[in-house]
Amino acid sequence: MWGLEVRGVAAAPILGSWETESLDGAGNNPFAPARGNADTLYSRVGPVRYTDGKSQMAAGPNPRYVSNRVFNDTNVNVFSERGVTQWGNVWGQFIDHTIGLRQDDGTQADIPFDRTDPMEIFTNDLGVVPFTRTAAAPGTGVSNARQQVNTVSSYIDAWAVYGGTDARLDWLRDGSVDGDPANNNATLMLPGGYLPRRDSRGNASAAPRMQVDGRLLAAPASAVVTGDVRANENIALTATQTLFAREHNRIVSLLPASLSQQDKFQIARAVVIAEQQYITYNEFLPAMGVTLPAYQGYDDGADASVTNEFATVGYRAHSQIHGEMEFHTNAGRYSQATLDALEAQGVEVTVTGADVALAVPLNVAFFNPDLVSRIGLGPMLKGIGGESEYRNDETIDNQLRSVLFQVPVAGNPGCLDGPTLPQCFRGVVDLGAVDLLRGRDHGMPSYNQLRNAYGLPSKTSFTSITGETTESFPSDPLLTPGNEINDPNSIDVVQLFDINGNPTTVAADNATRVVRRTTLAARLKAIYGSVGSLDAFTGMLAEKHVAGSEFGELQLAIWKAQFTALRDGDRFHYQNDPLLTYVRQQYGIDHRRTLSQIIALNTDIPQSELPANVFLLPTTPAATSQTPTTTKANPQTLTRAHTS
């Protein structure tokens, strides 16, 4: 054993023999103890690109201008062509909040907003699209190239559940709050089976910091508290955090009373970490069409640090996020008062006999943790896997592309989704525009430079990127000749096709491919002029998908490189950690569980009502070609922790 002493819960032996992972990633690599730690630089794959070579962002078209012409989905839902469920983006965010978080206290660099743009349909009393640069890492950006700090551990280590400091973990665990989590109970605090709020211990101001926005700004003490500060961002994420806190406590309940509280905690944490890794590599990545080289064992020369290119470009898959979340369950779960309260918030409630359908617009789901307990963890987690996520393409739903996290104006709750959305808001916050500008902020290479950095050849035309046949605008009486790029008709949808390639309609709400009046290639050419000027983020999303994958060549290459490094460079990866074998043999607790199994074990949704693989709709070709690896568990491990 390495016998390391690190910040956080020390990597001291448990049960006299086994080492556990530090909270902040320190010491994971015994020969490079700082590698992958929290508060270290994002690593880089490609060249740094600043206009002055130091810090000045590269020039390019206005991000909102690009967004209105490229990222605008015109309120037409386009779903995953392989039947990936909403667990694709929900699990992706759970992993994102485990391995990466930039410093957001840099200088203001707001995006100009042009209210006269003929493609603009939103009112913006803010006058700009807010944007804050990531803080420059100390000692960078003045006489050398600006770098950025990853404030969390790069390892897949359930950071989102436990956090990276003793102080946060001490607050999260049942027991005293004296700065030392090792003298607390093994269990995480879960009042009523749900995550604690900032005021759960009385003084909300003494609770760990959590990000609040939108509706939660009016009641910050009601924010849930977890290992990661972003857990309140949306109800699907909050529900996932709740699930794994319950799973931790369920595992603790299976361990013998003879073990110390600290040993129970460390064993449960090790199993939860392994479960997060196991699901990521055996369900999430295969569902997304990402195939990695076979595991050859831990490689102490591999650097698991999250790369700037992955965090800033490759992992920004916001196109996949659905504009609403739908949950179907027994109407008897809810009182009429609860249903009325949900409707008052903007949730669409449809009761049909004994059943109820709850459609939650994404804006209502932002920073609204109360909805998790009101709807119930079981129905919510089941519902996430019940509908396809959006296609990973260049378009982004207006809930994200225009009104992110904003509180709607009062008195018009019926306009929270679709074409009526602009009536609800008087400001514009555009996540697509922010994603694009974040690449310039972090000095990301251009599109072709980034392709080259990942071993891919340059593209020489826009059609070679998109797979379309022309980069010229058509002769169309509905388009303004010579000014097609500024004509709202240019992005009209003229054809839709379903997952089987059959023509469909907007009303059917089952399209997986659309054809617009103008090609994406033509619009990109009109905006950027040449492929050499293309932002990496825009070009990546525009790429034609690789067969059997949710990604184009560049995004797929970035994911493969990063998730291979996260696996091979992690000494505590589930295929390398001997503690997991000991726990399985000694206590019958097996980390090799599917997400479906973990949901069934920790809610009142029985396994029979869940698909074996919640990441894929059961009837799609991608699902029928994949059979998740499962294990026959010891009967004692099937004990449920909660029934809601």
Task: Give structural notes.
The structure is a single chain. With 644 residues, the protein is mainly alpha-helical. The protein has a single domain, classed as Myeloperoxidase, subunit C, CATH 1.10.640. It has 21 helices and nine strands. The strands form four sheets. It has a three-stranded antiparallel β-sheet. A hairpin with a 2-residue loop joins strand 6 and strand 7. The longest helix has 27 residues. Keywords: Glycoprotein, Oxidoreductase, Peroxidase, Secreted.
pLDDT < 50 stretches: 1-13, 627-640
- Note the total helix count: 21
Alpha carbon gap, first and last residue: 41 Å
What is the class in the CATH system?
Mainly Alpha
β-strand percent reads 5-15%
What is the CATH architecture annotation?
Answer: Orthogonal Bundle
According to CATH, what is the topology?
Answer: Myeloperoxidase, subunit C
- Succession of helices and strands: EHHEEEHHHHHEHEEHHHHHHHEEHHHHHH
Say how many strands there are: 9
Overall SS class = mainly alpha
Give the biggest sheet: 3 strands, antiparallel
CATH superfamily: Haem peroxidase domain superfamily, animal type
The global form is globular
What is the radius of gyration? 24 Å
Mean pLDDT over the residues: 93
For the record, the count of structural domains works out to 1
Strand order of the largest sheet: 5-7-6
Helix content: 25-40%
GO biological process, one term: response to oxidative stress
Main location: secreted
GO molecular function, one term: peroxidase activity
Biased composition (Low complexity): 620-633
